[in-house]
Amino acid sequence: LIFLRHHIDDGLKYEYLTVENPLELWQNLNDRFEHLKAVVLPKALNNWSQLRFQDFKTVSEYNSTLFKIVSQLKVCGEVITEDMLLEKTYRTFHASNVLLQQQYRLHGFKKYRELIGSFLIAEQNNELLLQNHENRPTGSAPLPEVNATLSDFRGRGRGHGRGRGSGRNQNFLGPRNNNSMKWQNPDTKQRQKWSNPGQSSKDEQTQNKKGNCNRCGMEGRWYRACCTAKHWVDLYQASLKEKDKRI
Q: Which segments carry the region annotation Disordered (predicted)?
């Protein structure tokens, strides 16, 4: 009695609340709903006859509708075999897919699930094919990858020795010190245009006339444009203070 009342509708629970015999409750439900088979069967048979594979946009929609109708037919006592499912699908192909329907018949499927599995695979492959076709026009080359372009640009910049610390300048300056070295324009003439002559000291002007840097002693370089490493500068400054000793 508890099992029957648990699985019936809430409205029926209150309607048969006074019935305490489970056999009596079962007979009442059977008398009330036995005629539904006679109502459901004609509608299910009609839906089965009108069902066509070509009326659905996707294979999944057709498969779901088919099994819904088959379930109703089985509840009403009708027998639906695998051959009936296969024939129903083959005969309802679109007229433009006659050759495709013949190819699936020649494949010799014995079970309906095997046929639907082939449909799903073919549908997925066709969607990918159309998507790739619509991404770019026919005959057009793909766009270059961003990483490849950047690596090519960086390779050109370093390979020709235009970057800081490349070639013989790197050997002269010694190991890099990121804390003490700041990038400056090595072009002396361009640097002189940027600098204000009125802001430089008299010692710098005197030293620049000789052509040597006050900081590192290198020719053709301003003090403010010097990018020599700090330990090299310290050695040069020490050599100026102790000229008679070997450093």
A: 133-214
